[in-house]
Structure formats: structure tokens, C-alpha cells
Amino acid sequence: MKILGWITVLLCGGMLLSATADFPDFGDPSSPPATHVSPHYITESVAETEVPNIVTAVLADYRGFDTMFETTVVFAAAVACFLLLRLAGESRPKPRMYRHRPTG
């Protein structure tokens, strides 16, 4: 079973690493985010969000739904881990009562 896990990890890692060749170069001014997304944020952020700071507008208003759903996913994963790791059946052992027996 361990070998199957290692094979799966190596295959998935290899596919992820091979996909990085399709990314644009770091800092490329002709990449899609630099040519389409950034100009929209710069020109329209004040009009759409009424926030004078562009960084705050992007993080709070444009990415707000993304952050909310990320928080929801992390909370759901924590609840699932709690439910999987909790003890089945009785959660506490029965208390034991001891009596003192005097010795001679």
C-alpha cells in the first residue's frame, strides 16, 4: 500500500511540475494578468469599490468572496477531521471506585 501511495504522489508531482512550463515568465509585461487584469484594477477600482487604496480594494472587495469560501473550506475540513478522529461510542471511560481496606 505504501508503494501505491508513493507512485501516486510521484505521478501527481510530475504532472504539476510539467504544467509549470506553460506559465508565463515571472515579471513578463505581456502576460495575461499584466495586460488584462491589472489595468482594470488600476482604472476601475475606485469607481467600483469606492476605496481610494487599490491594494485594499483588491484584497477586501475583489478577493473577498474568494477568501470567504477559502475560510469555509478550511472550516469544513476541520469539522471533517474532528468527526473522523473522535472516539466512537463512549467518549469517556467509566470512573473506577476504589475502597480502602484497612490492613491489620
Main features:
4 helices; elongated; 0% strand; single chain; 104 residues; mainly alpha
Structural description of this entry:
There is one protein chain. It contains four helices and no strands. It is mainly alpha-helical. The protein is elongated, with a radius of gyration of 28 Å. The relative contact order is 0.05. The model has no long low-confidence stretch (mean pLDDT 84).
Summarize the structure.
With 104 residues, the chain is mainly α. It has 4 helices and no strands.
Blueprint (SSEs and pairs):
Blueprint: H1 2-19, H2 32-49, H3 54-62, H4 64-85
Helix pairs in contact: 2-3
Q: How big a fraction of the residues is strand?
A: under 5%
Number of separate strands: 0
Low-confidence stretches: none
The SSE order reads HHHH
Summarize model confidence as the mean pLDDT.
Answer: 84
Estimated radius of gyration: 28 Å
Number of alpha- plus pi-helical segments? 4
Described by the principal axes of the CA atoms, the overall outline is: elongated
The biggest sheet amounts to: none
Terminal CA distance: 61 Å
Range of helix content: 55-70%
Helix and strand content put the structural class at mainly alpha
